[in-house]
Amino acid sequence: MEPTEQPRNRITLEDSVPHTPLEDTATARTALVVVAHPRPDSLTAHIARRTARRLTDAGYRIDLLDLNAENFDPRMTDADLPDWNNREKTYSPEVEGHMRRILAADVIVAVFPVYWMQVPAILKGWIDRVWNYGFAYGRSKPRLAGKRMLWLGLAGAADDDEVVALMQQALSAQLDDGIAYYCGLAHSSVGLLPGAEEKPQRLDAAGNLLLDEALTSTARDAHYAALEARATGFVDDFLAGDRVAA
Ligand SMILES: Cc1cc2nc3c(=O)[nH]c(=O)nc-3n(C[C@H](O)[C@H](O)[C@H](O)COP(=O)(O)O)c2cc1C
Q: Which of 36, 90, 101, 203 is the most buried (most CB within 10 A)?
């Protein structure tokens, strides 16, 4: 499938994200920022907005894909099932539209809450339906070859919970190895942001759920400032790698 139209330069999360000046749009590289959270006032959406701003500051034009706001349907449909005998299959108009947005992007950044050690269903469904046979895989040179991707996952587990290392491993195996490598992306990394809940929680050795006291005032501010700084660090590392690759 070849791109037939330019993707929309839409930014719909409520905070303003500075637009790339018009005169730069012809040359600016495009970042597709994919957000998978139902609430625009969530911490996930907040981190997505900060990420978009950082990318804009680095000269990227942003295509913000808010999967919930756009009512993306994660359920696989007959029209979007692969036809193993036809890798040129035309998929549903919705999926073809998403494919065009991916094709137009130089980099992709997904921002999501970790659900059960995985990406949430709406993001998984986007991958299942859109990263499809003949487009994302099934060719010696998939259409996604050379693109770079960052996955930013917010998790409720406390920073020092032992499960965090396991979560990082599980997400990297699924997203970097299972998906991005298979689809020929030039780079994929997972930036895990634990401590996303007001009351950090962990399991003790006996399997008991321990809920910490809710953070308040300055401790709370410091906690979220550190989480934001970590997110920015992941984005900056990703951008630094971009410059080296170019
Ligand atoms: C269905 C569901 C599953 C979750 N699974 C996990 C999990 O496996 N590990 C974890 O650390 N947090 C888990 N959480 C907590 C979320 O990661 C956390 O609430 C979220 O990142 C907070 O960000 P938000 O305020 O933007 O929603 C889960 C939350 C929900 C609703």
A: 36
